[in-house]
TrEMBL record:
Residues 40-69 form the HTH cro/C1-type domain. Signal peptide: none annotated. This is Helix-turn-helix transcriptional regulator. It comes from the Bacteria. One of its GO terms (molecular function) is DNA binding. SUPFAM superfamilies: lambda repressor-like DNA-binding domains. SMART domains: HTH_XRE. It comes from Aequorivita lipolytica. It holds the Pfam family HTH_3. PROSITE patterns: HTH_CROC1. Coiled coil: none annotated.
Amino acid sequence: MDAKENNTDLLRWLAERTKELRVQKDLTQLQCFHETNVHVGRIEQGKRDISFTTLIKLCDYFSITPEEFFEGFKYLPKK
């Protein structure tokens, strides 16, 4: 797996996890944007990476810890 494929897989995981958390809270992408100023739609498309500060903002918004955000994450090893 080359670096680009690895990045794509990581962004896909981030997209799926973000959407999962949003749906669990019964929130729309627009609600999230208005309340956090984070465009979760772009994240959920798997085209946008996020910064550490954005990750913390989303964790606070979803009332979870960063550890909880990464539950189920399995590192994708370089090949």
